[in-house]
Amino acid sequence: MLEGAAEGVNVVNLLASQWGEMMSNVGDFDGRTTFGSKAAGGGGEFLVRVGTENRQRVLGHISLLGYSGNMIIPLAAGGPDESAIGDTVNVLNTEWAQQCKKRGGLVVLPHYPDPRMENAATIVLGEADALEMTSFSDFYTGIDAYSVSDWCRYLNNGYLIPAVAGTDKMSAEFAVGLTRTYAKIPDGREFSYETWMDAVRAGHTFVTYGPLMDLNVDGKPMGGRISLPSSGGTVNVSWNLASVIVPMTRIDLIVNGEVQESRTLKPWQDAGSWSIRVEKSSWIALLVRAKYDDKPEMIAAHSSAVMVDVEGSQLFAAADALTILKQIEGSMAYIDTIGTRAEATRYKEMRLMLQSAYRRLHNRMHQMGHDHPYSVGTHHPEHD
Predict the structure, then answer these.
(1) What is the reported pTM?
(2) Each residue's pLDDT tens digit, 195-215
């Protein structure tokens, strides 16, 4: 809480976790207290909530924030180096996510997309609330371009999953809030941990290494949705930027993962607008670049997306959908072969959940008329 206040970070999520047979911060978890809140005797400005990062080496990690009740366990599965030697793969990240949501929590895919295997199934099944851009200890490389491009795969297929930021602070080497999330709470609502979670779920967020942004698309904020008739239409994109940390250099208007408009920026404050024609369902976001004098240019800020739904048109990108499908196939192959099994019933339950994610996307691909390669284990009559 002291570090958060010193860095101007209003919400800090401290995550209990497991490292082999060592548990970290589990004694700080009580499943109810938001430290620093008025209800807990604090001033209500700087908050710390203890959640959990549940982890497995191959299927991936998942951050479970703000949930109530008993700790969601096991904290780790699948063996070293996250869980103990000999542990079985007896739970999926998606199942941890479902438990968190049932208890009112927020599900974040941390340090996205690594490790990545089960992320695809969790997103396709609608169990992830946000994905996290992480700085680790590097002050100067900015938001990882690969993280952004992988996120775009899901946006391109209509999965409106917001972006958040995380420090992944493991020691005093890392600064709290080196990269951070700004979440816009609606006017008239008081700041609290609960209203912060609601703002993240709604996608009213941007991720930044310094520049601040406001984005408005036909009156809709980041995370909003716009409906247009089948003939499409023109939307107005307006933005306002400011920075006191790093000089800004360029702003890109991203539409369906591609730069549609771009212009240089005044280094410390700028504003502007574009009118763009939208003829099919699309997503729109802002990307801001910045540069210290002695460092390379970096992606310094990125907004969550605004979705534009055009009647009769679906957001679908066949090549991206296929890569998502292959990731789900990889998860199934892992628990089928390499993963150490728990009892047969538990294995079948996990396999069915992954299969449901696979079939959900796969059926949609066929509905969109897209034929695709398949593995022997996923062949079915529709391919003949």
Answers:
(1) 0.95
(2) 999 999 999 999 999 999 999
